[in-house]
């Protein structure tokens, strides 16, 4: 399988972590791919007209995106314990946490695009504050709901670890550890997993 | 079930259409909810810290978001034909089309926020052009892949109809019908469905 990928993308990292956790990483060939919202990537466009990573080409030549779809697909290719619980409350808790974590990441990325890519005179505090609040409230909600972090590793945990890892890597929101001891006790433990250590983002 | 909802949101519309198509709409109580990226909604935040619609509170009191998770959850509550195919190629085709349609919608919404909400002097052509290209290329890809539109109605078709309906409602991208006869033959037919007619967006 071929994965259009970037080391700094938290969504591409989700996919590679999923592959490692499910023993599929040897079957995944990563293709370093540069994407930015103001720079069209004509090479990626035929595979994914949204020009985003991650984008997967399966062994059968089918194209899959975004990270949620790719991760769920990979999870069907192995016989071990599933990262996407099959049904019932466990499934919805995992998928809700994935949504929340992805939503925090999205808000973080929009902050970074605003501050890191947009010309300084075009930056708007109203936008930055709005997106920052979403991310910060999201982290606080997880800090205050111990149940979300418990139980066997699922795709929600992986999404959350990628979100936090990316926010600390880009330092988009200052010291996000402050006031969130439970969340970061969990994160620092999760960070020890070989799948996390093998996928540390690089600039 | 209680659905935090806005008439103009293409993602909230996805959920209501899913409910109608699966015969669950009578069980859904919609709560009109105003959200905007620069206006925090303190009432919604305890349910969804990202402060986005749609957000669902199930009969059991569980909270679910975003639209993908809610729609998949609703699809487990009925015994009819499933909008999320259970497995195999049919499932991935449906989920990929949903991702593509949601990605087109996301790019469209970012264009609208830029032009409709951001102060004029802070608007950046580089951003608008980048997001516009994603949406336009996405529509073209669907026009050129007849298979995506064929087969029994699935969640990908619903997401696509909501995306197109929203782009025409907001007129974010000019005349998107031009040069896409197959896509709009499909759309105009889909638009006749009672679920589409019952959920036309209002400003």
Structure write-up:
The structure is a homodimer of 203-residue chains. The first copy, chain A, is globular. In chain A, helix 1 runs parallel beside helix 2, helix 3 (88-117) packs antiparallel against helix 4 (125-143) and helix 3 packs parallel to helix 6. The longest helix of chain A has 30 residues, at 88-117. Chain A has a four-stranded mixed beta sheet. The first copy, chain A, is an alpha+beta fold and 203 residues long. The first copy, chain A, has two domains: 2-75, Glutaredoxin (3-Layer(aba) Sandwich), CATH 3.40.30.10; 88-197, Up-down Bundle (Glutathione S-transferase Yfyf (Class Pi), Chain A, domain 2), CATH 1.20.1050.10. In chain A, a hairpin with a 5-residue loop joins strand 3 (55-57) and strand 4 (63-64). In chain A, 51% of the residues lie in helices and 6% in strands. The interface between A and B is large, with 48 and 48 residues.
The counted number of beta strands of chain A is 4
Which CATH-level-2 architecture of the largest domain in chain A?
A: Up-down Bundle
- Give me the side-by-side strand order of the main sheet of chain A: 2-1-3-4
Number of domain units of chain A = 2
- Over the alpha carbons, how many angstroms does the gyration radius of chain A reach? 17 Å
CATH topology of the largest domain in chain A: Glutathione S-transferase Yfyf (Class Pi), Chain A, domain 2
């Amino acid at each position: 399988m071929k994965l259009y990928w970037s080391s700094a993308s938290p969504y591409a990292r989700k996919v590679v972590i999923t592959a490692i956790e499910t023993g599929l990483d040897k079957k995944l060939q990563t293709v370093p791919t540069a994407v930015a919202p103001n720079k069209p990537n004509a090479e990626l466009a035929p595979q994914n007209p949204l020009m985003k990573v991650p984008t997967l080409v399966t062994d059968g030549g089918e194209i899959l995106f975004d990270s949620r779809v790719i991760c769920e697909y990979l999870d069907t290719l192995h016989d071990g314990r599933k990262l996407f619980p099959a049904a019932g409350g466990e499934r919805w808790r995992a998928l809700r946490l994935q949504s929340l974590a992805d939503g925090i990441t999205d808000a973080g990325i929009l902050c970074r695009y605003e501050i890191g890519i947009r010309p300084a005179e075009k930056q708007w505090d109203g936008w930055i504050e709005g997106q920052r609040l979403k991310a910060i409230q999201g982290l606080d909600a997880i800090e205050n709901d111990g149940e979300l972090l418990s139980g066997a590793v699922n795709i929600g945990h992986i999404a959350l670890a990628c979100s936090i890892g990316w926010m600390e890597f880009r330092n988009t929101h200052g010291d996000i550890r402050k006031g969130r001891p439970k969340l970061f006790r969990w994160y620092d433990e999760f960070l020890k997993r070989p799948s996390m250590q093998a996928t540390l983002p690089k600039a």
